[in-house]
Amino acid sequence: MKRPAFVPVVVATLLVGGCASSSSTSASASGSGSSAELIVFAASSLTSAFNQIGSDFEAANPGTTVTFNYGSSTDLATQIGSEGTADVFASASGTAMDAVAKDPGVEDRTDFATNQLVIITPSDDPAAISSLEDLAEPGVQIVLGADGVPVGDYARLMLDQDGLTTQVMLNVVSNEPDDASVVAKVKSGEADAGIVYTSDIASNTDVRGVPIPSKQNVMATYPIAAVAASANAHLASGFVDYVTGSQGEATLKQYGFGPPETG
Amino acid sequence: MRRRLPLSFVVLGSIGAAFVALPVLGLVSRAPWGRIAEILTGPGARAALRLSLEVSLLATLCSVVFGVPLAWMLARGTFRGRAVLRALVILPLVLPPVVAGVGLLQALGRRGIVGGWLERIAGIQLTFTTAGAVVAATFVSIPLVVLSAEAGFRSVDPRFERAAAVLGAKPGYTLRRVILPMVAPQLVAGAVLAWARALGEFGATITFAGNLEGRTQTVPLAVFQTLQTDQEGAIALSLVLVVLSICVLVALRDRITGTG
């Protein structure tokens, strides 16, 4: 019998077919020799806002290139500790910043933004959701971030603190790898509701946001700091000042972030 | 006399071999051997293993039931557009699985072109259900059955069919009693490969069916989920898939490599 013709295809499939992994960080090393390059490690929820702030900062400081490395704050803190290439670190949690503050150390640490959770539904709101309590109604299909994914951990923390865990968890139909996937599942109408950050939907008109009152909500506070080992210390503290200044604050507001808590 | 290979080839080839072997070695060396039994018998892992077995076997069954007749059409049919159909059937093999998932959502999701209708008329929802995970796994594994079976059908001399017809056998009888037994090895090979592919499916499943323990969280999804909080647990689960994949390769070794 002749050799089956499918052999090469089969081998190729076994090689490529296994898994599609989801990657969250991407460091792009750009920067020309003559200009100064500032490397900013930032929480992935800041992506849109910081891309905007980065180009504004470049425009205000000719010859400067800002390169971003976005990812989970915890991962970024580990990378800064082991590689030490970051000039600035903007974290979605105080604990990740604490780790960097310990090693290699930080300067100008400031809380610059807050983020809260919000319920999202498809624009036609098929399950008639108007409060957190509505998520406990039988039959509502809810998607959350997975355990260990920050947005999922915050959502569970909030549900726990509001005493809704038991009922709402019965309605959870999927634990998604990140906030963007939660938005996608709700936007497409597959799920009736999801819980994400307010910043996730600021520029998203395809989903309906249902605000969660502050007393029920949890608040994520974002600290920023210049990394102590930075070779561009001056530029780094300039960037921190820009983000915490009025222009940075305005951009962050535009992308759905709240002002830092005072006092 | 043994032929000597050029040194440069030996060096490059060894790098290639090491590249493939290292991740497996990494998994084996970092595996929490002390508590591997405890991890794999934990409730989450057991649910994932049971679900993976169920989903992959059902997907294999669907792939064979629909894939073998499709292969027959491609091998023996003389209709227009056969080449296009074949390309279409192979597409899931080369498509990134996440794209397959997005496509399935548009077709069979609650608001998909067929899925919306399914839900309204029959009350059937595929997304976020075990049936949806089977659909996703079938989509990516059916090409392996079709390709393998079609190659088998093509290798059968048409004179067998003519001889059977001359002797009075109806086409259906000829197919069942003459052709299928002759291509049984290819059918089995295709089914086993489809099973292995279904077992490893991740991207289409998480995109289309979601990720929920006991319902859609198969072993690859459980690996991903566990990795968020417990790297050792993820490694233990990964090893199960590595071992199963190796078993498949060993079982099919002469079919895949062309050597004994």
Question: What does this protein structure show overall?
Answer:
The complex is a heterodimer of chains A (263) and B (260). Chain A is an alpha/beta fold and 263 residues long. Chain A has two domains: 33-114 and 221-254, D-Maltodextrin-Binding Protein, domain 2, CATH 3.40.190.10; 116-219, D-Maltodextrin-Binding Protein, domain 2 (3-Layer(aba) Sandwich). Chain A is 37% helix and 24% strand. In chain A, strands 1, 2, 3, 4, 5, 6, 7, 8 and 9 form a nine-stranded mixed β-sheet that branches. Chain A is elongated, with a radius of gyration of 21 Å. Residues 1-34 of chain A have low confidence and may be disordered. Chain B has 260 residues and is an all-alpha fold. Chain B has a domain at 48-217: MetI-like fold, CATH 1.10.3720.10. In chain B, 78% of the residues lie in helices and 0% in strands. Chain B has helices at 7-30, 36-40, 43-76, 82-94, 97-108, 115-122, 130-155, 158-166, 171-200, 203-208, 219-227, 231-251, 253-257. Chain B is globular, with a radius of gyration of 22 Å. In chain B, 39% of the residues are buried. The model of chain B has no long low-confidence stretch (mean pLDDT 92). The chains are: A alpha/beta (263), B mainly alpha (260). The interface between A and B is large, with 35 and 46 residues.
Topology:
The complex is a heterodimer of chains A (263) and B (260).
Chain A: H1 7-16, E1 36-43, H2 47-60, E2 64-71, H3 73-83, E3 88-90, H4 94-102, E4 106-122, E5 142-145, H5 150-161, H6 165-171, E6 172-176, H7 179-187, E7 193-197, H8 198-201, E8 207-211, E9 219-227, H9 233-244, H10 246-254
Parallel strand pairs in A: 1-2, 1-3, 5-6, 5-7
Antiparallel strand pairs in A: 3-9, 4-7, 4-8, 4-9
Helix pairs in contact in A: 2-10, 3-4
Chain B: H1 7-30, H2 36-40, H3 43-76, H4 82-94, H5 97-108, H6 115-122, H7 130-155, H8 158-166, H9 171-200, H10 203-208, H11 219-227, H12 231-251, H13 253-257
Helix pairs in contact in B: 1-12, 3-7, 3-9, 4-7, 7-9, 8-9, 9-12, 11-12
